[in-house]
Amino acid sequence: MTLEQDDYLYRYWSVEAGLPQISVTSIAQDTQGYVWVGTQNGLARFDGVNFRVFNTANTPSFSSNLITALYIDQQQRLWIGTVYGLMLYQDRKFVYLDNLPLPGGVNSIMQHADGTIYVGADHLYQWDEQLEKLQQVTTHQGAAFALHQQQDTLFIGGQNGFATLKQEQYQWFAVPDHIAELQVVQLARQADDLYLGTSLGLYRWQNEQWHTVTLPGYAAGKRVGMLYLDPQQKLWVASYDMLYQIDQRQVVTAEQIQGQSKDFTWIEAMLQDKFGNLWLGSHTRGLKRLRTTSMQRFSTKQGLTDPFVWSIQPWQQHLLVGTNDGLALLQDDKFQALSANKNLPNPLVYSMLLDSQSKLWVGTRGGLSQLDGNTLAWQQNYDSISHLLVSTLVEENERIWVGTSDGLYYLEHNKLQQDQVPIALHDARIRILLLDSQQRLWVGTENGLFLRDGDSFAELKNMPLSGSFISALKQLPDGNIFIGSLDQGFVLGSLESWNWFTQNQGLPDNGALYVEQVNDQLVISSFQGFYRLNYSELTMGNIRQVYMLLDDRRPEAVTDSLRCCNGAGSSKGALHEGKLWFPTLDGVLALPIQQLMQYDAIPKPVLESLIVGSKRYLASQVRLEPNQRDWQFRFTAPFFVQPSSMHFRYQLQGYDTDWVDAGSRRAAFYTNLPPGQYRFVVQVRLASDYRWSDTVSMEVQLAPHWYETSTARAIALLTFMLLLWAIYRWRLMALANAKQQLETLVKERTAELHLANQKLLEMSRQDALTGLNNRHYLNANISRIISRAKRNHAPLIWALLDLDYFKQVNDSLGHQVGDEVLVIIADLLRKNSRSTDHLIRWGGEEFLILLENNEDALLVIKRIHKAISDYPWQDKVNLKQPLTCSIGAVAQLDEWDWQHSLRLADQALFWVKEHGRNAYMILDISSPPTTEILAESINVGQLLTEGKLHVISNKDYTADPL
């Protein structure tokens, strides 16, 4: 496949954008995402917006401004080769490795699989990590012009041949005698082939033989300037003025990606970054970035005679396109013009409609045509409106409605008419028509919206877009009507209720030209591109997750976007053959539906530094002196696709209470900060994307002045208190005359406080004796408890517990012992219940246990019953006999209220007490309950006898009462 400029979106950067010099010699990318660009006038670090230049003028450790090679090693260190020697960038510092002079400068840098750094220069060198110096590799003689590493083999380009270094085994491969002297200046291994770029052309080493590789359009014997093997294992080859790609030994000219005028020549450097962008560095033209997109454009390259597309219409498996130059059919990714074009009243095709009778209606800037919908042959024109733009068409039974730049018409019995059109629409500028599922005709004009319901038309004046330029109408699958305007946003809903959405609510643009619902996504096009919205959220009046699928809002979109969309009226988009299609200024644009929910990469923020005064701090944790109160944080986000659209926000935690919106600003300023511990965090997102990136942070501790320390503050506080005491003593005598009034006021306030305390005591929700909850607690919390139970689909268990023969304890041992027993019972309930259970002293010796989680309710009731009966009452409280309890319980159903649950639990408790006490009964009631269960008065015993109730009990419930 021939790669052309049209296959890529691109941008250029040169000296006017901040590049230090137009000659780009090398390109590399680090883990933070920065692209490093080596030039003949210094090194530049690029984040997509700004070039930060390092050279001999601002970086003392720089040996030379003429950069010859860049390499990022496994430890993410940046090695820099210059004409004078080798440098290293590590931990944000440049170091000149000048222990060994390198005549002629550095040609290439490469890391072997074993971690060793090799440097090609006048000889081959390796970097000794322990000695921190370069050492010559004596096995290789002469200069090393190029290095390439693959797996465990290092390839070395030299004079008249190349060498390999594998597991310290060195082998030289000389050029054959029939080839003139040459230098191997570029190396790349693709699959099993080794390509050698030399001063005399391109060769392939195969089967231990040198094979000449012919480059189309390039004279043999000329120098190869660059070889680059991209991550897809495709090999790029650059000569002085040509660019090629090799895939499976097939050489393809790729010169078109150099630009329409092919002026991006003398390419010396190439890189595919982690975002998939392709970077080219030219010796004479600076830096260029190219990228591909999942969208497809079909334009003049595919045979379109005029790229300005106004309308599209699906036709069979193909697509009809209306342009300034007539109709074209897109078939098998190629356009062919229609013979009907010569009969159209005007070549500009603005709207189309394929009706149910297989007639194709074509609206032009100067009239209406009818074509055969099966053969696309022209049939007739309608001269009565040949002076009008036909902007919209819609079918209604045997009638075709025609919206024009000067009124609404309908075609019936092959005649254009206006008899049934109101006067207000006779000369209105009609833009869009819609016939909905209720056979209502919606008419969008440049000055508002009309609706025909039945036989009459009426202007819709009681809606948000009344009087606006209506540009889009569509009924969605759920019946909602979408009404889009040119510059006032859109509305969604029905005649009874509209939701209005504009940029103020979060839309990226106030225009809407076309809309399509795909699953739960609403795709809307405008002059600024097209975007998707969550449809379910829209129906509830909310805008969330706005995502621009194509963003044309930035200046760089001229070359770095596909430029969409076009028109206002019918045929301004289509869902066809698994793709969304849009008309544009340059052909038609197609988005595969499977790509609709895809996301582009999110930029990653980088916190570059904290600047305090003249000092720059780079560490993630910083401690500052007391006088360092004014701070400037610098941050960015290396990103290279519409980077001007990036949006930053930051927060200084410990000072800011919320995020600070920075917009495109990449700095934050703080002054006169108090001492303390701070954490600065920053995030970034694209204007086209609702998603924020992960945060990056820096911890900053600001030490206090001595007078801001806790000791100094304590002394100041003590001094202040002593001063207050002195003032108080001085004032004491002056206040003696008011003593009586103060005492009276105190008595009044004391009485009021006593009344308030009494009221609080009455309102208390805690039993004073046992510390358990009381009835007030239940009344205050029952609604919330029941709601939680319904939400968790777990019925509440109501259990009433009564102490057996407790009156005898009070009568025989006194109420003090009885109170002690109640306190112990409360403690036993706490120890044997769960954290989700509610314990309430219901009255006297009766307790209410409300269990929210019914999964092990029976186990809890059993545990409580056993704990009470097993307690050593005779030893601990001197009871004459053990104390037991009776428990009645029921699970609440949705069909009754909670008071009924209490009645049922009380009936169950009554049954247990009637049958000998010291037992429990849990009523098991199936849903829906019978009428007897729902009755106000219920006889549990009778229902048990009749078998209408099921119980869980440790007693035989069929036995007669004792």
Question: What's a concise summary of this model?
Answer:
This protein has 962 residues and is an alpha+beta fold.
Detailed description of the structure:
- The chain is an alpha+beta fold and 962 residues long.
- It is built from twelve helices and 71 strands.
- The strands form 17 sheets. The chain has a six-stranded mixed sheet, with helices on both faces. Strands 59-65-64-61-62 form a five-stranded mixed sheet, with no helix packed on it. A four-stranded antiparallel sheet has the order 1-28-27-26, with no helix packed on it.
- The longest helix has 25 residues, at 739-763.
- The protein starts with 8 loop residues before the first strand and ends in a 9-residue tail after the last strand.
Name its key features:
6-stranded mixed sheet; 15% helix; alpha+beta; 962 residues; 5-stranded mixed sheet; 71 strands; disordered N terminus
Spell out the blueprint of helices and strands.
Layout: E1 9-13, E2 24-29, E3 35-39, E4 42-46, E5 51-54, E6 67-72, E7 78-82, E8 86-90, E9 93-97, E10 108-111, E11 117-120, E12 124-128, E13 133-136, E14 146-150, E15 153-158, E16 161-166, E17 169-174, E18 184-190, E19 193-198, E20 201-206, E21 209-213, E22 226-229, E23 235-238, E24 243-247, E25 250-253, E26 267-272, E27 278-282, E28 286-291, E29 296-298, E30 309-315, E31 318-323, E32 326-331, E33 334-337, E34 349-354, E35 359-364, E36 367-372, E37 378-382, E38 390-396, E39 399-404, E40 407-412, E41 415-417, E42 430-435, E43 441-445, E44 448-453, E45 456-459, E46 470-475, E47 481-485, E48 490-494, E49 497-501, E50 514-518, E51 521-526, E52 529-534, H1 535-539, E53 547-551, H2 557-560, E54 574-576, E55 579-584, E56 587-592, E57 606-612, E58 615-617, E59 621-624, E60 631-636, E61 646-653, E62 660-663, E63 667-670, E64 676-686, E65 696-702, H3 710-732, H4 739-763, H5 775-791, E66 797-803, H6 806-813, H7 815-832, E67 838-843, E68 846-851, H8 857-870, H9 873-876, E69 885-891, H10 898-914, E70 919-924, ...
Parallel strand pairs: 59-65, 69-70
Antiparallel strand pairs: 1-28, 2-3, 3-4, 4-5, 6-7, 7-8, 8-9, 10-11, 11-12, 12-13, 14-15, 15-16, 16-17, 18-19, 19-20, 20-21, 22-23, 23-24, 24-25, 26-27, 27-28, 29-56, 30-31, 31-32, 32-33, 34-35, 35-36, 36-37, 38-39, 39-40, 40-41, 42-43, 43-44, 44-45, 46-47, 47-48, 48-49, 50-51, 51-52, 52-53, ...
Helix pairs in contact: 6-7, 7-8
